[in-house]
């Protein structure tokens, strides 16, 4: 297997990055490209990849999604399978719990229809006369807090073995 893998690490120069990716995409003998999420998550076009296996997990779920997108590129003709290797009772389990929480939090803030409420947030940030402020926002703070309450409770924090009280 080692003869059919290529590794890319931090010490490789940026100029070498495209050479490595081109070789991986064009050489059918190379069956695996080993990358860290930090290296493999940005600026690569890995359309010849059909499998992504995470053995490390970022605390930021969007970092991992960005890394997955390296294989889900324009020109991809294969179905891409994504796997996560996790060991029960390890820090990775906590990281994945945190990722799920952050993803749900982002979805609650952005809204179920996928539309960002940035215009409402901007309107709140800019000082205006009370008469200019909209009478009712489409998704109020109470609604967001209600959804957040369903996502996470103190018992779930406590189950991580750390105290998060202020």
UniProtKB/TrEMBL annotation:
Coiled coil: none
This protein's UniProt keywords: Hydrolase
Entry keyword annotation includes Transmembrane helix: no
Stretches that traverse the bilayer: none
GO function term, MF aspect, one: DNA binding
Helicase C-terminal domain location: 1-125
Keyword Hydrolase listed: yes
Entry-linked Pfam families: Helicase_C
The protein, known as: Helicase C-terminal domain-containing protein
Annotated source species: Thraustotheca clavata
